[in-house]
What we know:
Ubiquitin-like (UB roll), single chain, 13 strands, 7 helices, 2 domains, 278 residues, six-stranded mixed sheet, alpha/beta, five-stranded mixed sheet, Cytidine Deaminase, domain 2
Amino acid sequence: MSDGWSADPETLAVxxxxxxxxxxxxxxxxxxxxxxVTMRTPGHDEELALGFLQAEGLIDSRADVLGGSAEAxxxxxxxxxxxxxxxxxxxxxxxxxMSRGLLTSSACGLCxxxxxxxxxxxxxxxxxxxxxxxxxxDASMIARLPERLRRVxxxxxxxxxxxGAALCDAQGEVLLAREDVGRHNAVDKLVGAxxxxxxxxxxxxxxxxxxxxxxxxxxxxxxxxxxxVAVGAPSSAxxxxxxxxxxxxxxxxxxxxxxxxxxxxxxxxAPEPVEVLS
Length: 278
């Protein structure tokens, strides 16, 4: 254009609603219930639903799920894309009472919850060992993890509009990565993908493209994650939860530097040089 501006096509990250439902039998009667409607990037919907259910304490493993199906209408008759999870057994009554059944935005992982009671925050383990006996992780490897996550974020590269989450092993190799407009959705998709494969996240490193908030730390704790590495800052609630759950929480991981907020003993940190005067 003559004034220096130009008109160019833009690629946008897709954001659309997904209803997450559970179906089960109680006292011989079929029950179907909407738990939440979340705003997400379409794709990997089954993973998202299973990861969400684990974080809510409704399932622990693949064995708790008989199957699932994509539906065009919710059990309430709403025309919303829906993933319905068939549970192997009915959930506890207290878990049903604490479910959401309301809208969850892409920016909020705990929206519409009236209480934090019932959210699993069990201490994490590394390959079946306690945090006190966990293998030591190389600090320079930790510093490189955000760049490794960035390499497996094609949607962010095209749109700049998604969050990323990666699951890494103790050597820093990326095992799995997911993207979504909602950072909590990206983590749920990771956890759900592991569940579908009959695997768990115990002892793994979770790498986040943004900040570490309470809901992400809670999801990590529920999944048995050992280390959280975030590009951004952690919140005070996330730090407190990580401390109690035995999670090493690392933030501000940028340009070869990072801050360690909890359980620093898990990392092999070089001591500060000491000047000796003769």
